């Protein structure tokens, strides 16, 4: 069973659209559209959850739920950058509600290469996105 996101409907995201998009502009518009799905989450906009390596303010909260004795990861995040939010959808889509072990094994670099995203993003956006991913991975490594 997959945990529901607390702040948007995951069914509104179809990763295949990103795979099928023609060119960077279509991918970028799709990421922006997905970014709008994440509403500001004042509950996590606190220093405890703030990522320091991001140019745009970004916050992430990871929690572990026990489901049939298997630890399941839940993720809440927010950013002032629509692009970072859109990229964060990739992490939510592949990791939110999944087992912590599955998240540890998830190949984000492979996905980014497959989608041909990294070469089109500014260094600050890549850093923000990787900071978000690092926080999620670090949580999983310690739980």
Automatic annotation (TrEMBL):
Gene3D superfamilies the UniProt entry points to: 3.90.1010.10
Source domain of life: Bacteria
Segments forming domain Fe-S metabolism associated: 16-137
Family affiliation: Belongs to the SufE family.
Protein name: SufE family protein
Organism: Sessilibacter corallicola
Record lineage: Bacteria, Pseudomonadati, Pseudomonadota, Gammaproteobacteria, Cellvibrionales
